[in-house]
Structures are given as C-alpha cells and as structure tokens.
Write a structure and sequence with these properties.
This protein is mostly helical. It is built from 16 helices and two strands.
Length: 463
Amino acid sequence: MSTEVSVGAASADEPQLKRAIGPKLLFFFVIGDIIGTGLYALLGNVSSRVGGALWLPFLIAFAVAMLTAFSYLELVGKYPQAAGAALYTSKAFNIRFLTFLVAFTVMCSGLTSSASAAYAFGNKYFTEAFQIHPPTWLIPVCFLGLIALINFRGVAESMKVNFVLTLVKLTGVLIVVLCGVYGLSQGQGDAGRLLEFNTGEQSAFIAITSATSLAFFAMVGFEDSVNMAEETKDPVKTFPKSMLLAMAGAGVIYLIVSVIGSWLLSPEVLGNPKSNALLEIVRVGAPGFPSQVFAVFGMLSVVNAALLNMLMASRLIYGMSNERIIPKQLGIVHPFRRTPWMAIMLTTGIAMVLVTVVPLDTLGGTTALLLLMVFTLVNIAVLVLRRKEQSTHEHFVAPSWTPIVGAIGAFFLVGPWAGRPAAEYKIAGLLLALGVALWFINRLFVGKVDFDPEALSQEPHEQ
C-alpha cells in the first residue's frame, strides 16, 4: 500500500520576482528564441525533403505555430505564472502522471534542441571558421562539455545578453539576405525553382508534410516566453502584442531567406548534407565576402540556444526531483556553487550521446515531434479550461476556432501520415521511456506524490 507525499507548497512570505521585462525586451526574447538553430542549421535539410518550393513548409509551420501561440497567450493571460505547459495541463486535466509527462517531454525537447545546436556549432560553423576537420563528434561533445561547466558555475538568465545575441543572429541573417540579393541582382539563380517539388518517390503531399514536420523546429521557441510571465511588466497586456509581432517578424525572416535560397541555389546544392545552406548562399551570392566571418556569426547564433536549453533541462530535472516525482538523487545541489550538478551531469550525458549517434535532421525533427505533442495538449487545454474555470480578470481570449484548428494541425504533424521518419519516433520513445522508468522507480520507493506543477522549473535555493 503506497503512502501519499505532499510537497511543493509555496510560502506566502516568499519574495516576488522582479518585473523588469517590458514590451521591447519581450519582443527580442521571443524573436531571439525562434531564430537560431532552425535557420542556421536545418534550412538545407528541409530543402532536401521538398525541393525548390522551400518557402511552403515554413509558411505552413508558421501558421500552425501562430495558432498555438494564440492558445499560449490565452493561458498565460489567465494564469500569469512561470510554469508553462505543465501548469496548463495540470489545471485542465488534473492528472499528475500526464503533467509529469508534459514536463519531461519539454525537458527532452531541450536536450534534442541543444544537441542540434552543438552539431551545428561543431560541424557547420566551427570547422568553417577555423578550417579544421576533426571527427564529427569531437567538437560538439566538447562544446556540450563547456556548456555544462558554465551551467555548473551558475548562470542567471539575462535579458540584456539575450538582446545582444539576438542582434548577432539578426545581423547574420541580414548578411545572408544582402549577399543573396546581390547574387540575384547579378543575374544568378532561377525563379522557376520556387514552384518545383523534388519529391523523388514520394507524393507532393507527403513531401510537403514531411518537410513541414522538420521546418516546425524553426518556429519553436515562442513557448519559452511564458516562463517569463512573472518577470514581465503587466503580462496580460504585454504578451499578446510582443509575442505576435515577434512571431510575425520571425516568420517573414524565414520566408525571405527560404525564397532567396531556392531562387539562388538548386535543391541539390541547397540540400546537400555535406554543405551548409546559409554559407552556400553567402559564397554564391557574394563570392568576395569572407565566409569565415559569417561562420563566426553562425557559431554565436547557436551558442545561446544550447545554453538556455541545457539550463532549462537541468532545472526541470532538479524541479522534478525536488518535488519527489523522480529519484531525489538527481536533485543533489553542489554545496558551493548551489547548482544541481547531478541533473547537469544527466542532461549533458544524454545530449552528448544524442549528438554522437543521431543525425542532425533527426535531432531537429525529434525536437519538433516532442513539442508538437505538447502543443496538441495545450490547444486542447484551452478548450477544457474555458468550460472548467471562469477567469477572475480580463485577459487575451483566442478566437474560438484557433485552438481547435491548432490542435488538429499539431496532431496531424505528430503522426506518421505526415511522412515523419521512423527514427524520430524511436528517439522520442527512448527519451520518454527513461522518464517513465524514473517515475515508476520513484513511485516504488516513495509512493504516490502530490506535487506542485509551478515548482517544476524552480532554481536551487539555500537550504
């Protein structure tokens, strides 16, 4: 007979987070979180699946992401707390195991995203910047090790640093666009490619949906901003305008780059797995521009994504351990650095394995798969909570049809009918199986636990 453990009760005397984030900083946080590895690493992989009509998968992915963003905006306005999808799932369904699975799925998406960033850093930009070619696993693994050391030392999230790195990313994109436009102005390229589908043995529909399932990785990141709700000035009013403008801006950037890329380069060149799509645009569009300079921009553009995702993943493991829903040993905090070193070791080890044995497009696709599962539930949660709970204050309300279409769109892209490779399901299944195993091992020794979803992403604190 299991015992029930109640944990996570928040003290009414605990200090509130400082509300320091205004509309402009939130805008740059969202657009900086979206623009990153998806553009700097996976543009060519998407092209290899769909051919010249590269812009179409990004447009569809943007539409599905925007519909889900409406749901997040309604929920963050209704519950302006820093807990995200786990909190919304808990309030809607009140099933603790489902809440845990959502939190663990978000954590796993952070690991696959960080592994993607590490791969891009080591094998697409580091090698170009320094003109060396070590084994493909070496630089990404060392990069993740460095991220772990920074994580262990302790990093407080800084919106100002994010602002600077966002400017770096946008500058890199501007270089690509200018080089590409210059090349087109010199008569290079073929506009007819923009309507071509190089599908091979697949139908055009499967080629488009398969490419969209990967392109969706480029549009994720906006969901992270809800974790900043408690640090945002007037989040109920600030979030809708800042998030929607940032997403629209990111969507336009992806469409411009994808159109220029397909217009300037053939799908064979753009989708060559041994090349880097953005570097090829720069080389072909403006041969005189030093590609090593752009490679440095590429390196810096993926560093922040890897660091923030590994921070998020280790803190989620710590939060789940601290709430006693996975073994407590994973929540051990270093006595001097006050950082969760066991959680950092676990998450870094998993990311290192992933970047060593899993190809880049599978890592990106698995990230999209994991988050699309979460987005499906979040869209459904909006509908459930409208019936279940009446809000006590005014907030953004999504159009009645958007969570329905958003849930259908996200769920469609989750399924194998969308042309998603089987390898992505295997990786996602193995990661989630680890979470389920940790849950049941803990349940065997601790018993049933009633935990606080809001505490899952908390920072280690002084005892």
